[in-house]
Amino acid sequence: MLSVDSPPARSRARATLVAIWVFGGYYVGAKVGFALTFLPNPISVLWPPNSILFAALLLVPANMWWVVIAAALPAHFLAELQVGVPVSMVVSWFVSNASEALIGALSVRLLTRGPLRFGRVRDVIVFIFAASLAAFLSSFLDSALVVLNGWGKSTFWQLWTTRLFSNITTALTLVPMIVTWASGAAASLRSASWGRSVEGGVLFVGLLVIGALVFDAPIATTNSPALLYVPLPLLLWAGLRFGPAGASTSLMIVASLAIFGAGNGIGALGMRSAAENAAAVQLFLIFIAPTMLILAAIVDERRRAEQRLRSSEQRFSKAFRSSPNAMSISRRADGRILEVNDQWERLLGYSHQDAVGRDFHQLNLCVEEDSRRRLDAHIEAQGKLPHLEINIRNKRGEILRAVIAVEAVDMEGEQCFITNLRDVTDRRRAEDALRESGERLRLALEAGRMGVWDWERRTNVVTWSKEHFEIMGLPPVPPQATYETWAGRVHPDDLVSAAAAMDSAIARRTEYRNEYRIVRPDGTVRWVESRGEPRFDESGECTRVMGLILDISERKRAEETSQKLFLASRLTVMGELTASIAHEINQPLGASLTNAQTALRLLNAPQPDLVEVRAALEDIAKDNLRAGDIVRELRRFLRRQEPSLARIAVAELLEAVARFVSPEARNQGVEVCIDVADGLPEVLADRVQIQQVLVNLLLNSFDALYTKPPGQRRVLLAAAPAPANRIAISVSDSGPGVPEHLRSSVFEPFVTTKPEGLGIGLAIAQTIVTAHGGRLAYSNAHEGGAVFAFSLAAAVQEVHGN
Fold first, then answer.
1. Residue 696: pLDDT over 90
2. Facing residues of 464 across strands?
């Protein structure tokens, strides 16, 4: 069940309310229209139902127009049938009434920007056009339907004329009042001040009294044309003081009084026949209504413009007063200051009384005469000054660094300048301190044996520090070099990449960092790391590149030693696996030899059995493929290469390691089990390095199980999810666990329980795991055995190799 506050429920409630108002308004309007019908013409002098429909369509969204039309239909039938109108004429008149309202509303929607507002001149003109167009077009339909139904005795053109003037008059007087009061005038009336309420009451009473005397009093029949001007001051009062709501309401009051008098043959418009009186009322209202509506819209737009101007002036005044910059307003003609804000007084030390009436030069604000001349010349030439940094002097005699900007404005018809002063003294001091800090940093770099260089691209001169010359193996005489000097010392194999790194940084306007080799004059090769940053001038051209250079040869040698140590660890592992792998390779080779001999024997028979020969050859192919797989896995494990991260399926990784150590596992009677949790993502790792870690851990577990009976020698290789988007991998065995005396040093180099071991396997494994963002840890299981575990990052995005 929907709540009463749900959107569908609210929509239904709104539609119901609209339907009730339209039904009631249309019915009452129809009754009023019949009362104003002067026979023999079956068309009312003022027919409100059409305008009520028109106004309702303007007030609701287009998707509710059907509600308005549907609500008016029963009201129309009820009102028309009560006065004896034939059913065919009832239907015809509803079609013409609805067509007028729809033509008018659709025209307004197409020609206005948003909802119709009688406070906008353009919207008022659009409304007048739409109301006239709707009445003009629908009058043809209405008159034709009356003639076809034989209702009345008037001709088609008599009916069309009466209908046209009647509907235009009604639309111009009734629709504006309905729309303005429904669009917020009622709320404004409730919030009006006491004085404004009294003024509105006086205007209302005055209109009733004057209107009754002019349009409804028998005395007004004499010299009546002149009396039509008497209500105009009150109508103007309503439009000027109360806007569209006042103008439309006063028009409706005057229209009601005029129609009543004309219908009764009294007043200024009731001197002739009923038809002539009706025409006089219509023409009077048709001419006066647009005038009053447009006048009220002009006044309302002007009032809103003045409010916006006052609001803008208030915002400017607030911004001027509260600006964090020092601001002043001066006359353009003589430069004399008219106003200053609080920040200006605080910055320059002059009070408001000291500043007003004097110019910048009289206050002696400019320190340098040259700055003053440049300031005056720039303003004289361009009429403004976007940015100029100068020194200024405050009243206390302090010299401040400030950025001045001048903008020309028109204020109350007088040309003025708004001057904005921004104090940058502290910023300049900070920049000076930063430069001094940079100089100290340069000295620190020299003390740290780092070479500093500065390449001036326009002159191709490279300034090197003394340490830079020492790294290059050159004497520091002369103290300058060129780009070619540097290029001549770079190793030929690295020159292209080193130059490209610098060129790329210049193109991307970023810093760069690069490693390459240099060849010293004595032939020795050194590794260096170079860091640089390009500098650009105002036009965007790179004028220089500055940076430092560091000798990293020792680090490179350490890395090479580490790689050799890793390889040595693998060779150690392979030494342990040699016998098993040899046995594993001999098996397929021996089988291949046996199958080859069998095939030869079969081929030498008088009648060779080709089926058996084919089977023997297929076995030979399978055995050779198995031997080749073993050799390829061995070569890949022993290959020396740079670490390369890649996406690896966890299950495939563990199965490959298990296959690799399976010969040794069979020799030692160890059962290797694999347990991989379902749905694990791929990991991001170097395949060979992680295989090295796992092989080392498995072989250690094999060695730890030698005291166990063959049936109890088990090793579990497991993988499961871990926190922080990582995958935990563990190797656990059923052995005795790590001895107590080794628990604190198990990962230290050269610590081992094997007489022939080097003691570097676990240390290297820890190094590899740490490089992958994890930590190799161990624990002794409660039921016995050791558990070694680490984690790898899950691969969450594509990884591009180097």
1. no
2. 453
Residue the block writes with tokens 């009051």? 253
- DSSP letter string, 203-218: HHHHHHHHHIIIII-G
pLDDT for position 583? 47
Distance CA 340, CA 326 (A): 8
Say whether pLDDT at 59 is over 70. yes
Tokens describing residue 194: 């006491």
Give the predicted TM-score (pTM) of the model: 0.46
State the residue for tokens 């009032």: 303
Spatial distance between the Cα atoms of 650 and 296, rounded to a whole number of angstroms: 81
**Paired strand residues for 341:** none
In percent, how much of the chain has pLDDT > 70? Answer: 79
Integer Cα distance of 205 and 506 in angstroms: 84
Position 102 scores a pLDDT of: 92
- For residues 45 and 173, what is the distance between their CA atoms, to the nearest angstrom? 13
pLDDT for 728: 93
Query: DSSP 3-state assignment of 732?
Result: strand
How much of the chain is helix, strand and coil, in % rounded to 5?
Answer: 60, 15, 25
For residue 173, give the nearest of 127, 109, 106 by alpha carbon: 127
CA distances from 76 to 96, 210, 216 (A): 12, 35, 31
DSSP string, 415-468: EEEEEEEEE-HHHHHHHHHHHHHHHHHHHHHHHTT-EEEEEETTTTEEEE-HHH
Q: What is the CA radius of gyration of the chain?
A: 50
Which tokens belong to 801? 């190799």
Give the residue among 168, 153, 178, 139 at the shortest CA–CA distance from 281: 168
Residue 95 · residue 141 · CB < 8 Å: yes
